[in-house]
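Project outcomes to date are best conveyed with an example. Our students and postdoctoral researchers have been running inverse folding experiments weekly, and each run begins with a structure described purely in tokens. The record below, which covers 104 residues, was selected by the lab manager from last quarter's runs and is presented without edits.
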């Protein structure tokens, strides 16, 4: 049985027709120094957070564009190969698409 909601559409159909992640940037560039293993936090400041630390996660989340209208529920790192220079993050987000209808 479908739970009633203001859009009168089942959740599966809503997820197929509406993409709440369309405003979030998919790829971002974070400057990294191979010599000292630090990351550029701002235009003039380099920081050395531990790998997969809360500080590195916060720095990556601040670089994301399009997060203003979206509520962030959870963020975590996704494992990548050690030689890969990519940092991947999995986000769990929520957005109100219509009055009273929230997609997650």
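After processing, the design step wrote out the following sequence:
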């Amino acid at each position: 049985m479908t739970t009633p909601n203001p859009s009168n559409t089942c959740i599966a159909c809503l997820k197929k027709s509406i993409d709440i992640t369309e405003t979030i940037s998919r790829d971002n560039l974070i400057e990294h120094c191979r010599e000292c293993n630090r990351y550029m936090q701002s235009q003039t400041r380099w920081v050395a957070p531990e790998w997969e630390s809360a500080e590195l996660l916060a720095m990556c989340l601040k670089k994301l564009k399009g997060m203003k209208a979206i509520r962030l529920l959870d963020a975590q790192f996704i494992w990548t190969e050690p030689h890969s220079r990519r940092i991947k993050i999995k986000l769990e987000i929520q957005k109100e698409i219509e009055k009273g209808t929230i997609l997650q």
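The beta strands are 39-40, 46-47, 71-78, 88-98, 101-103. The chain has a mean pLDDT of 84. The training component of this project remains on track.
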